[in-house]
Amino acid sequence: MSALELTHVTKRFGEKVAVDDLSLTLEPGSFLGLLGRNGAGKSTTLKMVTGLLTPTSGSIRVLGLSLEEHPLEVKRQLGVMPEDMALLEMLRGPQYLRFVGRMYGLDDASIDARGAELFDTLDLKPGKKALISEYSFGMKKKLALCAALIHGPRLLFLDEPFEGIDAVTNRTIKEILLSLQKSGVTVVLTSHILEVVEKLCPLIAIIDEGKLKGFGALDQLKQSGESLESHFVGLVGGGRKGELSWL
């Protein structure tokens, strides 16, 4: 049984094709780095595989289940950290985790125990009465990760998880993700920081203009002697030279 299977998935917004005939299969325990330029279709793809958007055509299966036919069963097994975090900012952090945990059917004692452990591990120390709206950007990122992990997902989607995170917590998050992968959790993350992807992700998928331009093992790329950056730029186009006429 595949952890994730996309078959000829396309998403259109009017005349614009955001994702174009995307087919991709991940086995359980995979760790995929999903790469692409801004507007390439990464976030749209994540929204479709997590049920936030419906594909215009094609099919998505998650952990052996059709997302279209079994949306609730699929979503119960997913952990999602969207780039915009989608937090309820007028709640306090522990209150928000209670809300999320209850949505997944956890009892309050388990939620509080897991939440306390996550806060401690990620060094998240808001004031007892602080609302999420008062958190710094990095603190909000940590809280969004807590919400994605609290129910013990089998498939984890993280959109730019390291943005705004301090170096110490950055390392902690990497260790958490690698531990999850070793336990059989499938992880998919997007990041514009290629060095992070290169250190974490054995599998790489590159999307450009909605199309899958490259998919395969990072080890094979390394054996060729080509860097991930060079490979990425070569597939999506080099763009303009980094020169300014007045400098």
Largest sheet, if any? 6 strands, mixed
The helix content, as a percent range, equals 25-40%
What's the total count of β strands? 10
Q: Which structural class do you get from the secondary structure elements? A: alpha/beta
Hey, roughly how much beta strand do the residues contain? 15-25%
Describe this structure as you would to a colleague.
The chain has 9 helices and 10 strands. By secondary structure, the chain is of the alpha/beta class. The protein has a domain of 64 residues. The strands form 2 sheets. The protein has a 6-stranded mixed sheet with strand order 6-7-8-3-9-10, sandwiched between helices. Strands 2-1-4-5 form a 4-stranded antiparallel sheet. A hairpin with a 2-residue loop joins strand 1 and strand 2. The model has no long low-confidence stretch (mean pLDDT 91).
Q: What can be said about this structure in brief?
A:
36% of the residues lie in helices and 25% in strands. The chain has a domain at 89-152. It has helices at residues 42-49, 71-75, 93-103, 108-121, 137-149, 167-182, 194-200, 218-223, 228-236; strands spanning 4-13, 16-26, 31-35, 57-62, 65-66, 78-81, 155-159, 186-190, 203-208, 211-217.
